[in-house]
Give the backbone structure.
Amino acid sequence: MASKLDTVLVGNEPLQLSIEETADLLSLRGISMDPAELHAATAGHPLLTRATMTVYGQAGTGSICASVNTAVEDFLQMSLAQSTLGHAVKDFMIRTSIPESFTLELAAQMSGANNVTAILDDLEDKGLGMWFDIAGHRRFEYTTVVRTLLLRSVKSIDPRVTDRLTRIVIEHDLAVGNTINALRQAVTLGDLNLASQIACDHHITLLVSQTQAVRIILETLPISRLRKYPVLVMALALGHSALPSGRVKSLEYFGLAIVFAGMYRSSMDPGQRIWMLTLESTAMRFIGKLDGALKFANRAVQSFEESPWDLQERLAALEPTLYDQAAIAHIHAHQFERAEELLLKALDASRRAGSGPSALLTRGLLAFTLGLAGKSIEARVHLKVLESTRWPPGMLDGYWATTFRLAQVREALDRQSFEEASAYLDLINDEMQVSEFWPSIVTFRSMLDLHLKGQVLGPATLEAKIRQANRWPLNPAGQIDLDCLRANSYLAAGQSLKAAAALTKHSRNEPRVQLTRARIALYSDDPTRTLLLTGKMDGVGPRVEVHRLLLRAAAMERLNDPAGARDNAQAAASFMKEYGLTMTAALLPGNDIAVVAGHVHTTEPGILAPVSLIPARAQTASLSPRELVVLNSFATHGAANDVAVALNVSVNTVKSQRRSILKKLGAHSLEEALAVARRQRILED
């Protein structure tokens, strides 16, 4: 035991000696030293303690601190001198200290020794290292202190020998799947061409489960050395992007990746150019430039599909990522059919490449895409596969499983299983929330607040949630998503004017904007305008089509066209049955839901009864925007004088607006008016 203290482990932590144990060792060896001073000098490290005792015992007298400074090196020299294998063992140890651990085969290849087993057994007996098993493979590892000392001696070897030995280690690591160590060794060697190639060929392994390790390795390099290696800059950006506090740094690296890729793309071979186009698309997406992301993504896909067969074979490891990244750009643009097409190609490429992590990532994206489009039944097929699959360690709880969790939330919402959806959303941890899909996280949380708590988020609370979640610059499509969320929240609170104002900066021809404006028109008792806004929409998915048909049915019912209302509602029912959707997310005003649901259930009685989120028009007073401001100020300040000061208007103006508010709300006092306003959900937070 005493000769192997440095190799004994308790759990996953190295054994550390206490002062009492240090005193016992001194007594056992018959050495007169102060245990407290020795323990303080060695921090209880077993090998360092034993080495210091040995050196001090040989010297007889002297400073303990001075002994510690040379203890391990002197102890190592003494141990090797006593070895039956001769002093050549030190050369063996120096050569084999380059990797963190090694197999018999690797040690023999690096040292040229024939008696590797005997050497390593002897070193273990002397407490300088230990054997251990990983996945059935026997490996040897020097103790931390010994390896640190040996690595200093590596510098004395001919650099050409060190280079050759390091490349042997890299080749071995790649062969056994230890890609992170291969990348580390390539960076240590200074061969950034090789490091870049490793990052390209093994990007799924490195960036799915070892993102932070990659970041730590690459951060040691000055950015000036990375100019010609945009792949490594991109890896740095992705590493920072997975950190809640890494937004600014990641945006800087994404921008540099775009610049460097543009500078050196023309000098690259065709395969490298395709990879660079993929990286540029990804970087463009992260900095909020969706048009640029789509352009580069489409160029990358076209270049790959038009390339010769032998080049496609060479890029087989890249193919799933190429299609995945292109698909994500189309998901953001709400071009779900194209995204689905690309993801099916990525899934096929992952199968051909035998890449399990890549297939999981792609299937999660595919389930999310299908869910957003409204193909909930198809999404369930992929979710069942993902839920029954054993994921690689750390992947299911990390950034790369975000779309899988979001797909689960979307599918549960489509079944009106709100508790289940909330449980899935709670699984999205801090690391996942830095995802570029953060607007979906905010939207789903707001929907669940409405359904589970009956809570309409006021503007201040909603904006606070958006600011808290905002990790990346919004692309135009993401801005539309959030502004439609704002508008629907205002509408659920009975504030149609504010709902309309939230959409003013967006194109009137965008389907999401059109549908939200149609809801506002229906709420405002303008069914003719609702019909105008919900005319035929080309290229939209089942979800948008169902919402369009239900809004038209409600508008026709109000216009005394029951036949038209029935036809549209029944057409929507057919879509809902085919794709596994419900009426709830259509956000119909409360006084329209019952009528439209009756038409739906005539055709498909099995479709779940809808939940009303938007109040009927008659339930809410029509206050002007200024009256809403005054009413909210009264809720905060109470007295007319205080409201006048807060709003910088005269007291008479405030009193006049108060009289108008009381009349519209049918109230006899300010307290009653505030109670009515709260019931009608027209007060802000």
Remarks:
- Confidence is low (pLDDT under 50) at residues 1-13.
- The longest strand covers residues 129-134.
- The radius of gyration is 34 Å.
